[in-house]
Structure formats: C-alpha cells, structure tokens
Specification:
With 246 residues, this protein is α+β, with helices and mostly antiparallel strands. The chain folds into two domains: 53 residues; 140 residues, Glucose Permease (Domain IIA) (Distorted Sandwich). Helix content is 39%, strand content 22%. It contains five helices and nine strands; from the N terminus they run H-H-H-H-E-E-E-E-E-E-E-E-E-H. Strands 1, 2, 3, 4, 5, 6, 7, 8 and 9 form a nine-stranded antiparallel beta sheet that branches. The chain is elongated, with a radius of gyration of 34 Å. The structure holds zinc ion. The site of zinc ion (ZN) has 4 residues, from loops.
C-alpha cells in the first residue's frame, strides 16, 4: 500500500515536471519565432534608413570640404581621401614617395616663371650639387626681374633668407600635402607675406641670382616636397617638378 502511494507520487512529480518543462519549451519556441519574425522585418527598414545616412558622416569626417560643389570636390577629395591613412600609419620617409606618385595624375601646375614654355624646360632634378647633394629641383633660367608666379593655389607659409637659396618663398598646397619652394629670388612681389593665400598664376616674386646661384646666373630654383606635417615644411621628400610642368 505504501509502495503504491510513493509510486503514484513519483508519477505525479514526473507528470508535473513534463508539463512545466514542456510548457516552458513551447513558450521559448514561440518567443524565438516572434523574435525571428521581428528580425526578418527589421533589416529592410534598417537598411533603408541607415545606409544612405551613414556614408555622409563618414565623408564629412574624411574630407574637410564635403559641401562644396561637385566639380570642386572631384579634384580635392581624392587627395584628401587617399593619403591621410598612408601618412598616419607609415613613417613620413616611406609614405612620401608613395603618396607623391598619386599627386602626379591630379596635380595641375603651371610653369612658375612668366613667358617660359614647357619645351624650354630642362630636367635637372638628378643633377649633382656641391657637398655630395643632389639638386632635387628644377632650375628655370630667365632674365633678371622676370615675374615669378604661383605654380598652384596655396598659402605662402614662409619668407626666408637662406645662404644657399637666397631670397626664398615656401608655399603650401591647398590640400596641405605639398610645399612649393621658390629660390634665388631678386625680391618679393608687393603684398606677399607669410599667411597670404595666393592663386595659381599670381605674381609672388621676381627672378634673381641671390644665394649661391652665382652672380648673373639668373634663374628660378623650384622644388616640390611632399610633407607629412605641414608645420615641418622643410622636411618633405622632393618629387621631380619636371614631368609635372611639361
Ligand atoms: Zn637649383
């Protein structure tokens, strides 16, 4: 009799356990289905609302001038978008020649001396100079006092008197990746000061023979440096101006 009772009690416990866990299982299964259905509905909404929005903040972060006209951004954004990762991840020495090659296709320079034609230019970039140095620039002969004009738009960042270069100008490109250097100048044009933004073709100085040019050897010494840090404008890696001016 006592055995019969405990057996029934055990059976009851088993039945209760089966019901409770079974019910719980069914509840969880239904809940899972609900969540799945909700997840299946949501993605189209999420894609429709999120994807068009998210690229534009990214573009804002990468390019300083996203709200410019399409034509302006076509020339500016490739430079801004391509180069910063390379320069921030790598050392300036390694990245500079690499990023320099990407400028060649997009950079539109003019010959920075009035009246000089492309076919008159000589490639003197690899020429040897004193103390084992390489020229790393182009010399453009012209008569004394010939106007020197900005090769590209950009800010005049430094007017400097140097032993070798004589009277010189450092100009930073609009994308702040390149420094244009003009040397052996006779004098600066009126109103040219550090911090002044000049347009391409604007007269900034006059051809001279100052520094180590040699008396009467009137020419513009012009170089282009790729800089990792615009504040350290003298530390760039020079790229050959000749193919960019031809
Ligand atoms: Zn030179």
């Amino acid at each position: 009799m006592a055995l019969e009772v405990t057996r029934r009690a055990r059976l009851l416990v088993v039945v209760i356990v089966v019901f409770v866990f079974g019910g719980l299982g069914i509840f969880l299964w239904l809940r899972g289905r609900q969540l799945k259905r909700a997840a299946a509905i949501q993605p189209p909404f999420a894609q429709a609302s999120v994807t068009p929005v998210s690229p534009s903040p990214a573009a804002v972060a990468e390019t300083p001038t996203p709200e410019q006209t399409p034509t302006a951004s076509v020339t500016v954004t490739p430079l801004a978008a391509e180069t910063p990762p390379a320069q921030s991840d790598q050392s300036p020495v390694n990245s500079a020649p690499f990023s320099g090659s990407s400028f060649v296709g997009t950079l539109k320079l003019i010959i920075p001396v009035v009246g000089v034609r492309p076919d008159q230019l000589l490639d003197t970039f690899a020429d040897a100079r004193s103390e084992g140095r390489v020229h790393d620039a182009i010399d453009i002969p012209a008569a004394a006092g010939t106007p020197v004009i900005a090769a590209a738009d950009g800010e005049v960042i430094k007017l400097f008197q140097s032993d070798r270069g004589g009277t010189t100008i450092y100009q930073l490109s609009v994308d702040r990746k390149l420094v244009f250097y003009y040397a052996h100048l006779q004098r600066y044009a009126d109103g040219i000061v550090a911090g002044k933004f000049v347009k391409q073709g604007e007269v900034i100085a006059y051809v001279g023979d100052t520094g180590n040019a040699g008396t009467g050897n009137f020419h513009l010494h012009f170089s282009i440096a790729v800089v990792a840090d615009p504040k350290r404008y003298w530390e760039g890696t020079n790229i050959n101006p000749y193919p960019l001016l031809r």
